[in-house]
Design goal:
mainly alpha; two-stranded antiparallel ribbon; about 5% strand; single chain; three-stranded antiparallel sheet; 17 helices
Amino acid sequence: MGTLFADFQQAHLEGDGRLLADTISPFYNLEQSPILRSFSQMSNYQTVSADMRFHLLQNRNTKVQLSKNEASAWVEIFVALWNTVKAIASDTNGPGSPGKWSSAFDEYQKLATLLIRGYTHNGFQAWTVPCLNAVGKYLRVFAVRADEEPKSQETMTFGDGFQDDIMGNSGEHEKLEKAAWVINRMFTICLSDRSPIQESRKWGIYSTTNMLFKCYFQLNSISLTRNVLRALGASSSDLPPLSNEAYTEAIFRPLSECIKQGDLAGFDAALAAGEAEFVKRRIYLTLERGRDIALRNLFRKVFMAGGFEESKDGADPVRRTRVPVAEFAAALRLGNHMNAHQVVDTDEVECFLANLIYKGLMKGYIARERGIVVLSKGGTAFPGTGV
């Protein structure tokens, strides 16, 4: 258990922001994180504040000297971390039970608020900014899991294959909206810092921008990205240089993730958000063609979800190759984030299918009279993808 607190001490002695961020990152698979599992068992609700203060500040091996306000702030942050980990470790109603991730989100939101207050009121220095990125990342993950909890006990459906980067159409996204609000505060405290650039929180602006965009894309609130872009534009002369790595993360990663997941609405939003930059670099039309790949990946999910045909005489199972057009229509509704009242025209679906077949991204033909698509067998239905 001493490792976590030792890392906290070392991070402060060396000014290592990434190491400090690791100490408050609650890996939600506790079986893969024995340090956090031990951390969750080291105290109880009555003594946790005193225990954290001792291990962080009063242990005889402690060499870190912090101001009174800063020290108290870190104690409160670690108390919130302990409460978060306790919520994750809770198995009263079994793994994935309703309420588990909501509780974890609520506790970690408190941690995020305390962290922000550390910069605005308690003198946290700029080298600790990686903490904002780590906390924002896990806050968003917990929000998505919490918003999915009401359906966590239901049977898995096709839409579950989209994981956490595509939101379904059912239910509200209350926690994700709260996460976006908190991450927006992180963005603001980075952007508003007036310290010299070498000692400025502005170095965290690109990671917080990326997290904000992810939240807005998932909430289908694309218009909010314009506010962020306007704020960045107004302060562009004061921002630190954008490294190639940060540029890829902030601008191109949303596109690549949407292509991978078959998220058509997300792809359109990411392309629109970066349009000015893409046009400037003369790559807009090239990137626009990526929508065909996103559509191919979406339809491939339909094929994979169809399972296998019944084998005969002990032969190896073969994937179902006759797929109703209606299933591709359902996938388009998911990929475009359409609500329950919106419909997809069958002719439009067939047009998309024919286009993919013509471009060699699918192999097969449309049997219109039967309302099915007959795909190629032998692992060539979607050339280059292994199926």
